[in-house]
Amino acid sequence: MYSNKHNVNILTALLTHYGVSHAVVCPGSRNAPIVHNLNECPSIACHPVTDERSAAFYALGIALATKSPVVVCVTSGSALLNAAPAVAEAFYQHVPLIVVSADRPQQWIGQLDGQTMTQPGALSAVVRRTVDMPEPTTDEQRWYCNRLINEALYLATCKSGAPVHINIQLSEPLFGFDTESLPDERYFHKPTVQPQEPVPPTLPQAFYDACSPMIVIGQLPEGTVTGPTLSLLRRRYALLCEPLSNPSYDPVHIEEALTVINMLSDEPDYKSRSRRDFMPDYIIYIGDTLVSKSARKFLRESAAPSCILTPDAFDIHDPLMSLTDIVECPYESIEPLLRKLADENSGAPRDEHDIARRLLAEKWNVLLDVCYENAEDYEPPFSQMAVAKYLEQQLTDFDTDVCVHYANSSAVRLACTYATHYVWCNRGINGIEGSLSTAAGFSLATDDMVVCVIGDLSFFYDQNALWNQNLGGNLRIVLLNNGGGGIFHRLNGLSASPAADGLVSASHSTTAQGICTQNDVGYMSARDMESMETGIVTLLTRQTHRPMLLEVFTNADTDAKALAEYFSIVRPRE
After folding, report:
1. SS3 of 232-294
2. Average of pLDDT values for 80-100?
């Protein structure tokens, strides 16, 4: 039996039409009719999470794993505001997160009634559409509710996808559950397209006229491009990409390469090379953000005209400050486009332009190969670098599928040095607050092992992610604990401030052991190289029905010195 609230039943019926099969639900009385319906609906699996902030990131993780829209349902009042960080991340990652909030009837907003605030518009900056649903009493009002929910769900799932907010006004009594079946609701059908191979878009002529074009690939949904295609493309074009965009066989060390390039002057002075020799004269930019700040700075300094490929021509960005062309390209057409470019330019060079393009590609490839060899040869002391390197070495030899999530700040930068696979990371707005919850939610929607590599501040900030008895043994966590925000030790000049350690870096002596005990999470710790290596092997191989965590304690100064030493050996070679 379903709720006797018409707007709730209309919503539930339409969610099934738009492919929603997962909902993360939070406790509350005002949203109880919605939670009841979601639980009653046989095609929707409900995942209970108490902390609304964590719940919204859980929903984000499930959406990333399933590549489908996911609901997060919260009660009225400030509960909605707690979902904002995850909604913002979903907005910039183009994830169809459907936020459903319960609310008091409109007439009681602002009247000192309990748990009330103006909810419609609270997330307006980071959702594609907000709709506010009254309780319908006439056919026209039912049509109005149907229309608004259709609009929201259609906009959530069309083109590149985006979060939407559906606010449901509910009056008391709330707990009538006597409706036998959901209504047969009209819904918007997406435009029908004849099945065919994705057609690559036409790139601007300026790209083909350029002597030294470059292709830059930012964060993309997993599976958008393949390693073999990028390997072919790399032979013909200068290519910059990171583990957040592709499953590469070898890391592409952008940060290290730019360390070398920045040692060069703007005029030839080392083997007749200069910084200008590595700069493009036209850039194709695909995807979203790059982790490497140095890359963004370098590309902006080149002042090369740029073309952005976007799934939605109304959603444009100018990350390199040089945008001249916009090409609409759905995600499924990116791989065919790159494959076409690789094939078009195969074989012997055809003209001077072709020779020049390959010359720039060769310069970058030689440098990136040197950086790869340096990373392979460098043996860091016991530090967070050593943890990441050993973990990635073990993952390379692993026989089963592993989905690896890296948290923001230092962790994801280590991924860019050592990861040889696709990396999930909340890089939409780079927050630290939901990395663990996103990985935990992801683990609920897959049978594969999910490994989350996370720093201490990010972990303790999001510890409620483990407050969930539904988590299984496929979630494994590597906690890098150096007693504070490690990324801050890399910021030049910050150490001169008296506030650096206690206030900015948030130095602490907290451990995760108690958190793991209270949440029935298997706990291990490591304080040296031997115990770390043993711990990682155990973490990846032990059979268990509950999550496991390895906490690796390192020294922040040693971590910083290891990084500094690593980058100090990156030098131009004869």
Report:
1. HHHCCCEEEECCCCCCCCCCCCHHHHHHHHCCCCCCCCECCECHHHHCCCEEEEECCCCCCHH
2. 97
